[in-house]
Amino acid sequence: MKYIVNGGNKLFGKLEVDSAKNAILPIIAATIMCDDECVIEDIPLYLDVIEMCAIMEKLGKNITISNGNLVISGTLSSTSVIMAETKTLRSSIFMMGSILSKYRKAIFTHPGGCDIGKRPIDIHLDGLEKLGLKYSIANDLIYCDASKVCGSVIELSYPSVGATENIMMASTLIEGEMTVIKNCAREPEIVELARFINSMGGKVFGAGYETIVVYGVKSLHGTKFKCIADRIACGTYLIAGAMCGGRIEMDNVDPNFLLPLIVFLRNSGCNIDLFSDKIILENFSRLKSIEKIETETYPGFPTDLQSPMLVMQTVSKGISIIHETVFEARFKVVNELIKMGAKVNVSERYATVVGVSKLKPAKVKCPDLRGGAGLVLAGLVAKGKSEIDEIFHVERGYYNLETNLKSLGANIEKVE
Ligand code: UD1
Fold this sequence. Notes:
The chain has 416 residues and is α/β, with parallel strands linked by helices. The protein has 2 domains: 2-18 and 229-415, Enolpyruvate transferase domain (UDP-n-acetylglucosamine1-carboxyvinyl-transferase, Chain, Alpha-beta prism); 21-226, UDP-n-acetylglucosamine1-carboxyvinyl-transferase, Chain. It has 14 helices and 24 strands. It has helices at 21-30, 47-59, 85-88, 94-103, 122-130, 161-172, 188-199, 231-244, 259-267, 306-314, 333-339, 369-381, 392-395, 401-407; strands at 2-7, 11-16, 38-40, 62-66, 69-73, 80-81, 105-109, 134-138, 141-145, 153-155, 178-182, 203-205, 212-215, 223-225, 246-251, 271-274, 278-283, 292-294, 319-323, 343-347, 350-354, 363-365, 384-389, 412-415. The strands form 6 sheets. A 4-stranded mixed β-sheet has the order 22-23-1-24. A 4-stranded mixed β-sheet has the order 2-15-17-16. A 4-stranded mixed β-sheet has the order 4-5-3-14, covered by helices on one side. Strand 12 (203-205) and strand 13 (212-215) form a beta hairpin. Residues 22, 25, 90-91, 117-124, 158, 160-163, 185, 189, 303-304, 326-327 line the site of uridine-diphosphate-N-acetylglucosamine. Uridine-diphosphate-N-acetylglucosamine (UD1) binds next to helix 1, helix 5 and helix 6.
């Protein structure tokens, strides 16, 4: 599948932002800790969510979609997560914490995911080992035995999102034991996972801060839950509005989760109005470059918005230096952007972008999820017909992207 984009239209209108992919994925994994029915409301069918559900079904969970809600129940029939899907879906790693929490023994394939860096899982394994996990690795498989786990104090060497979530889940069912996790990631999606676990009867405190405390409980019960909006999708649409010009409103979002982006957009020349649950962006002028952009862990500027932001710099007036501190291989989109006339030079973790007055349409290929979204933004401003191929990357984390952009006035079609 590919997108055909005829660039040059301004964007006007409003969008309701869907639930966050990065909240939904660990929450789906967390349902493994509970046999009762768990309902996750208003679920957008990101490809990653569909793949995660497929893995869960193969492991024995019952999964249905009913009235737009994801309904999950049942007990696992297998704790061997060694399917082909786990190679492409890194989030399958979240099942490690939840399976070990409830079933104590498991085998995992070393997970894959977006090709944006080495993505090791040493921080996950070190933390789980401190809880008493014994594991061995052979032929790319990780054999885990958590039969002797107990509460512990764990200091993460880096605030990894996935490791924080895995250790939270792994300690949730260590009955009567307290686990303290220090140097945690503080992303809003971690707060969502904690809220979800607690809605099932778990006891997780401090999510969103540097230290999380988990009091282990005996079992969890069913729940009904709705996740926060996807701040990265929302940020991508805001950047689209800034680049194309026009006036767009993003509904159902908490602007607090996007403050670094909002500061950059305002410094670029956009007018932005913030409300408790919506953001309105207006721009009718050429954007100004942001001199220095550095990705950081939350609450800093998110690495997941780095590619869309880099694309915005390609058409802004001035020079921008972008420093990617989180993932080492997140500039793959640059080669494609150069085909569209962008002036970007990459040296290790730095990209220097010299803004040009316009991009030209081209045939390009999505290199990864966020880079692919960046190419769509480039297509929206390049006057004429661009073809953006390999959009399965984009659909892993954007739901109805073309429909949403069309509703704002963009000329974009998805074709075979
Ligand atoms: C999550 C998000 C992803 C986002 C990232 C950073 C989900 C499903 N994905 O990914 O969209 O880009 O957070 O905000 O929520 N690292 C190690 N060893 C480990 C774990 C991580 O070296 O054991 C490194 C990674 O290679 C990477 C950095 O730490 O360079 C950040 O990774 P991490 O925070 O774990 O990101 P993910 O949970 O994979």
